Amino acid sequence: MSAASIDRFLAAERRRLEVKGRNGTKPGTPLKQQIPVRMWAEWDDATHPGFLEIDLVSHDGGAARGEFAWTLDLVDILTGWTETVALPNKARKWVIEALDTQLARFPFPIRGIDSDNGSEFINHHLLTWCDSHPITFTRARAYHKNDGCYVEQKNWSVVRRFVGYLRYEGAEQVQWLNDLYATLRLYTHFFQPLQKAVAKERRGARTYRRYDQAQTPYQRVLALPDTVVSPAQKAVLTAQYASLNPAAIRRDLLRLQNRLWDPMPRETPHEFPL
């Protein structure tokens, strides 16, 4: 029997043994009809900060069984300002509590949030919470991950890059994740520049993009008008930036990564690249 024939005869068995549920997202309810859809191209009109994409990142270690930690990732479209917080699970209670605490950490008022179609977001609790603040609530199209391209990018560059794909569970490891995120936010906001596409041109079969000058989220916030971010808030950020030591932040990140990835202390710590 040839290799192709073997694959054909085993196709059904292989489908039966495939790992299911790795994305951790369950469809939302008919409530979706009350929440407007926003596509990725519509962010081109985001000329003010405060419009966020949000997503949950699972830490199941490749086995989505039992209870494990999740990271709520919140990304501002205009400035790239990113806040992350670890949750013991993705219950609606923890998601709303995290939004209450994390939105206050942005240096500008929040105008809207955009999520995927998971039931942890598409529910009456979050819709009521948005109406009471008030915050515009929109959702991506089902099966179109590119509609959440900004937060999906940060899921890798901020979350996966620094905490990996291991399984984290229990109150202690959730606290370890949040300790790391408290230091990581200083690095990403003040010392990690990013570029934004400002133009796109198609020539034949190829697409050419032009990008602006690389700036950190902190620099992008300072460049906003005083009517959007107050001079007092800018002064607070400037004083915080002046007090930071990037070498000390790197050492803290290495120490926290070692504790998270290898709970047993070593005489010589691992070196993990930033």
UniProtKB/TrEMBL annotation:
Instruction: Tell me what organism the protein belongs to.
Output: Sulfobacillus acidophilus (strain ATCC 700253 / DSM 10332 / NAL)
Q: Which GO terms describe its molecular function?
A: nucleic acid binding
Q: Which Gene3D superfamilies does the record cross-reference, listed alphabetically?
A: Ribonuclease H-like superfamily/Ribonuclease H
Question: Domain Integrase catalytic spans what residues?
Answer: 45-225
Question: What name does UniProt use for this protein?
Answer: Integrase catalytic region
An annotated GO BP: DNA integration
